Amino acid sequence: xxxxxxxxxxxxxxxxxxxxxxxxxxxxxxxxxxxxxxxxxxxxxxxxxxxxxxxxxxxxxxxxxxxxxxxxxxxxxxxxxxxxxxxxxxxxxxxxxxxxxxxxxxxxxxxxxxxxxxxxxxxxxxxxxxxxxxxxxxxxxxxxxxxxxxxxxxxxxxxxxxx
Length: 163
Hints:
This protein has two domains: 1-41, no CATH class; 67-157, no CATH class. It has eight helices and no strands. The protein has helices at 2-5, 13-30, 67-78, 86-90, 102-108, 114-124, 128-141, 145-157.
């Protein structure tokens, strides 16, 4: 079922994420690691795949020219409203622009993974609650995998955070 639900096999991201979550919950219950009868309320969703196949923020792909730049502009415009440390992180997208190579177009049309967002939070030095808010902010902004990679690259170039 996981192979059929995987987006690379023609499945849908949401179905794949749900199927992985169900499998992990059932496996956890079967191995007696579960401490309750309900699934974990952890956020973001548990993810054991690679960054390329992992759980992603909701994202509506649209390869229309200029759409990626509009999403980048949206993130930059919201940087003034989200407070720190999120504003400084979003401002790292100031020089992020649409690219037209196959790999870049693909990354511009898929949501950032929770692993990428978590790594950004870790490198910035966010606390657990700050990271949870970061995940929740990234969703309505429709941050793509390309956005997240750009931020990570900028953080790698500047090991000392600007905050």
